[in-house]
Specification:
The protein is α+β, with helices and mostly antiparallel strands. The protein has 2 helices and 4 strands.
Length: 103
C-alpha cells in the first residue's frame, strides 16, 4: 500500500474511494510514568513515551491501511496524523487520508 502526504501521485491517475482512518489510545504503566516525572527534573528524551508514541502511530496506520484494503485501494493520499491527550499519561493517535484506486 502506497502512503503519501501529497494529494497527487506523479504519473498516476486514480479514482477516490473515500476517507479512511485509524486510531488508538495508548499509555505507559504507572511505574514508568513516575520515572518519566523524575526525568523532567534533569531533562532529556522520555524514551518510553517515544516508544509508546511510535507504537501508537504504527497501530493507527495499520488500522487505516486495513480500511483502505477493505475498499480495494491501491494507495492512500493526503495522509495526516493527529494526537491528543486523553488523560494523564494517555494519548490518542489518529491517522487519516483518502483511499484511492489507480486507473
Amino acid at each position: 500500500m502506497l502512503l503519501t502526504t501529497t494529494e497527487a501521485i506523479s504519473g498516476k491517475e486514480f479514482e477516490v474511494l473515500g476517507l479512511v482512518k485509524g486510531s488508538t489510545i495508548q499509555t505507559v504503566n504507572a511505574i514508568r510514568d513516575i520515572g518519566a516525572g523524575l526525568k523532567t527534573l534533569v531533562g532529556g528524551e522520555l524514551k518510553k513515551y517515544t516508544q509508546m508514541m511510535e507504537g501508537a502511530r504504527d497501530i493507527a496506520t495499520g488500522r487505516m491501511i486495513k480500511e483502505a484494503e477493505d475498499l480495494g485501494a491501491d494507495a492512500i493520499v493526503g495522509v495526516r496524523y493527529a494526537t491528543s491527550s486523553i488523560m494523564q499519561s494517555a494519548a490518542e493517535v489518529t491517522t487519516y487520508g483518502t483511499a484511492v484506486k489507480f486507473i
